[in-house]
Amino acid sequence: MDAILNSLQLAFPDDEFEPRHVPFDETFITLPANHLHAAVEILVAQFDLHHLSTITGQDTGDAIELLYHFWRGKGLTLRTALPYASLSIATVTDVIVGAAFYEREIMEMLGVTFEGHPEPKPLFLPDDWAGGEPLRKTFVPLAEPESPGKEPVE
Amino acid sequence: MTRMTIPIGPQHPLLKEPLSFLLSVEGERVVDSAMRIGYVHRGIERLCQQRTYIQNIHLLERVCGICSHIHTTTYCQGVEMLLGLEVPLRGLYLRTLLCELERIHSHLLWLGVLTKNIGFDTIFMYAWRDREIVLDIMEDLSGGRVSHAVNLIGGVRIDIDERQVAETGPQLYDLARQVQKLLGVIENEQTFKVRTQKVGFIPPEHVRSYCMVGPVARASGTDVDLRRDAPYAVYDRLDFNVVTHQDGDVWARTLVRMQECVESLRMCHQILDELPAGPTSVRAPRKVPAGEVVSRCEAPRGEVIYYIRSDGTERPARVKVRTPTLTSLMALHEQLRDVNIADVSVVLSGVDLCIACADR
Fold it and tell me: Would residue B211 be called left, alpha or beta, if left means φ above 0 and alpha means ψ between -120 and 50 degrees?
């Protein structure tokens, strides 16, 4: 893990990674969004860290955060924050093909654009969905249809 | 040759769950395929944020109808870590016992589905009859055949008494005998081998590039198992082998899953023999201190990952679930390329899809 951190620091000398240990053998590091793609390339090419478990997207109230969870014996999570004004990041599907569905999920659930994604279409939500991004804090769920209820028994 | 497009689904002729395919075929050969999921998307991740940690146990148990216990295990161990709770050893042993019983149940169920789809109904009936043994054990332990509601934050709800230990052992031996018989058929029966060998081939490069997990990865020669590589619960105290195979076809996946059943049965015996005395759970506070955790477990189909973030209240700020089926679905179009239409059912059954899991 130290070797990975050193390597990333060498590639991006100006970034503060703030490495943090999170339970179950996971290291979290923070990166600016424009360095993320290059960092993933380094992880795969130099450290053979090719297993991307998933990408978590979350609305923290200040920004949309993306967490790229890698695993090889131990976990490594790359964290990046996207401001609401520019919700766009380069896709990593050109490096890891298996990121395709995770990115599509974040596209529809949080409204983030992954530039260069080969198939930017909805995955879980209906094709004609127009109810907004369900995992945003501002999302208002559709009202439940009123139950017809039972006629009172006399 | 003219190219035709055949829609299959979403009411799927093979699976019990909705999944839609568009197969482009030239004659009898599939040249391309497109897939659409999401028909059973229930918005569980969003619902988790609106419910308390305790309510979420019941919600997350319903992510999957087959491997329900592994989801609550992954979730509970994550929340326990956030709380800094030390779960009593007996509780962890029982949690692991259920995990392994569930693996046997899931693999036998899958063997039934596969053999049914290739027209080998005899094995389908034997496999599902033998699965009843493990369902009976689980019902005796927890009261539920498939949804067990066993996990609590801080341990397990159930305890096991001497009668149950005494009765479960012989039942497991019966099951082991049956699994050996099934293994004999899989290894030797020509009709089965003709339908499954060299079908649905997944090369190790695809396992790597699509980040595939579990028995599918192991049957393609990738030696990965979280129970050994990142042990949780009491797996570091158990003696078991990780089964791998080099062939990467449906036959190899069948062998891997059935041999995993053998290993799981061994683990169940070890758990029953070594079960320590003591309490099975500790009381957990309602509010969870702020923090985040990444929890991984080896479900019957492979790695399940939960990311849980707490903001110090009694409701989680984010629960992210990634189930193993999603990785297999991503690679399906590769497996469906250049197969015969008659083999589509074998390919689809071979990866053990759980659409409800993938959709959440």
Answer: left
For B:294-333, CB contacts with A below 8 A are 294-296, 303, 305, 307, 309, 317-318, 320, 322, 326-327, 329-331
List pLDDT tens digits, range B286-335. 888 888 899 999 999 989 999 999 988 888 999 999 989 888 888 888 88
Cα B13 from Cα B35, distance rounded (Å) = 15
| A67 contact B CB<8A | yes
- Determine if the peptide bond prior to B324 is cis (ω within 30°): no
A53 with B292: Cβ contact below 8 A: no
Among partner residues B210, B230, B329, which is closest to A25 by beta-carbon distance?
A: B230
Beta strands in A17-122 (DSSP E): 20-22, 26-30, 52-59, 64-72, 74-82, 88-90, 113-115
Cα–Cα distance measured from residue B320 to residue A137, given in angstroms and rounded to the nearest whole number? 15
- Does the beta-carbon distance from B303 to A50 stay under 8 Å? no
Is the distance from CB of B116 to CB of B15 less than 8 angstroms? no
* Beta bridge partner(s), residue B304: B297
In this predicted complex, what is the ipTM? 0.84
Residue type present at position A7: S
Q: Does B110 touch chain A (CB under 8 A)?
A: no
Contact B353, B329 (CB under 8 A): yes
Q: For the whole model, what pTM was predicted?
A: 0.88
Residue in chain B closest to A139 (alpha carbons) equals B46
The structure tokens 């529809």 sit at A108
- B94 Cβ partners below 8 Å, 6+ apart? B141, B150, B156, B158, B159, B160, B275, B280
Q: Does B198 touch chain A (CB under 8 A)?
A: no
